[in-house]
């Protein structure tokens, strides 16, 4: 159980609003649909987290994880899987309802394959999360999958530059979060046969890569707002507070809590400024 981890599903929704809600475009996001779609994504992430904890428990990885959902369910992986299945059904139904309401069912053409790719992250005897592809799957699912899906679910048109930058932002941020999570569990991951970035390259390399990806995500988001916004103050505020977020993460060293909390604080502060402008 780790409530802050769900912010990685909420922040893309906030970013869609920040980029498009104050843009040059006459088409603004449908806020109700955006919020509902963000809730759907969060439920699906919850399901994947449950499946991941259950699979790790079964294969002997992450057994030292004190906030594992399997521990919450009295060390019963089967119960965690049922919990995840319920969350997955609820998130899928809500997401589909949003797309039907928005008249955007075509979005399934790219989100559905990524949805199944995300489920494959924990499926089978040797899931993708145990391979060298785990970090790539995370980036693709959160970049094009989550940010791109939320963008179109909110009824926004195709705008290559802000859309592409937003996708890169959350591909980088989600991967940074994953990499920063890996160093403390290298020994158990290696023993379980998990080929994470940290297992392959070592803890210092994983922390460096996480820090660089975090910086890249903030630069990308600043560029997206600079391209789309009528109000330069919002872009300037994001750049200034983004620099503070980089310092908050980079100086002591990257870990999931610092990355998430610094990023969340940044988005909350800039959202407040955007509401006042």
Summary of the model, kept short:
By secondary structure, this protein is an all-alpha fold. The protein has helices spanning 7-20, 31-59, 69-72, 77-102, 108-120, 134-153, 160-181, 186-191, 197-201, 203-228, 232-250, 256-276.
- Main beta sheet strand tally, sense and closure: none
Morphology call? globular
Q: Pairing-aware structural class of the strands and helices? A: mainly alpha
- Average of per-residue pLDDT values: 86
- Low-confidence parts lasting 5 or more residues at pLDDT below 50? none
Measured by DSSP, the beta-strand proportion falls in under 5%
Number of strands: 0
What's the CATH C level? Mainly Alpha
Number of separate structural domains: 1
Count of helical stretches: 12
Protein architecture, described:
- The protein has one domain (3-276): Farnesyl Diphosphate Synthase (Orthogonal Bundle).
- The protein starts with 6 loop residues before the first helix and ends with a helix.
- The model has no long low-confidence stretch (mean pLDDT 86).
- The longest helix has 29 residues, at 31-59.
- The protein contains twelve helices and no strands.
- The protein is an all-alpha fold and 277 residues long.
Summarize the helices and strands and which ones pair or pack.
Elements: H1 7-20, H2 31-59, H3 69-72, H4 77-102, H5 108-120, H6 134-153, H7 160-181, H8 186-191, H9 197-201, H10 203-228, H11 232-250, H12 256-276
């Amino acid at each position: 159980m780790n409530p802050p981890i769900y912010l990685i599903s909420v922040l893309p929704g906030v970013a869609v609003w920040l980029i498009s809600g104050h843009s040059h475009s006459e088409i603004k996001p449908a806020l109700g649909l955006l919020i509902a779609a963000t809730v759907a994504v969060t439920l699906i992430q919850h399901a994947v987290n449950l499946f991941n904890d259950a699979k790790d428990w079964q294969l002997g990885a992450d057994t030292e994880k004190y906030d594992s959902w399997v521990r919450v369910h009295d060390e019963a992986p089967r119960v965690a899987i049922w919990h995840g299945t319920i969350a997955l059904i609820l998130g899928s139904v809500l997401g589909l309802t949003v797309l039907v309401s928005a008249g955007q069912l075509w979005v399934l053409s790219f989100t559905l394959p990524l949805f199944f790719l995300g489920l494959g992250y924990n499926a089978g005897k040797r899931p993708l999360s145990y391979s060298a592809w785990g970090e790539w799957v995370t980036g693709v699912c959160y970049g094009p999958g989550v940010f791109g899906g939320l963008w179109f679910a909110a009824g926004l048109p195709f705008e290559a530059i802000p859309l592409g930058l937003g996708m890169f932002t959350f591909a980088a941020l989600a991967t940074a979060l994953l990499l920063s999570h890996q160093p403390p569990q290298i020994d158990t991951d290696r023993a379980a046969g998990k080929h994470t970035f940290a297992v392959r390259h070592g803890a210092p390399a994983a922390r460096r890569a996480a820090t660089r990806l975090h910086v890249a995500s903030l630069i990308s988001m600043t560029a997206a707002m600079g391209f789309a916004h009528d109000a330069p103050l919002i872009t300037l505020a994001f750049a200034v507070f983004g620099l503070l977020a980089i310092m908050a993460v980079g100086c002591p060293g990257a870990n999931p809590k610092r990355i998430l909390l610094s990023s969340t604080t940044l988005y909350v502060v800039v959202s407040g400024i955007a509401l006042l402008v």
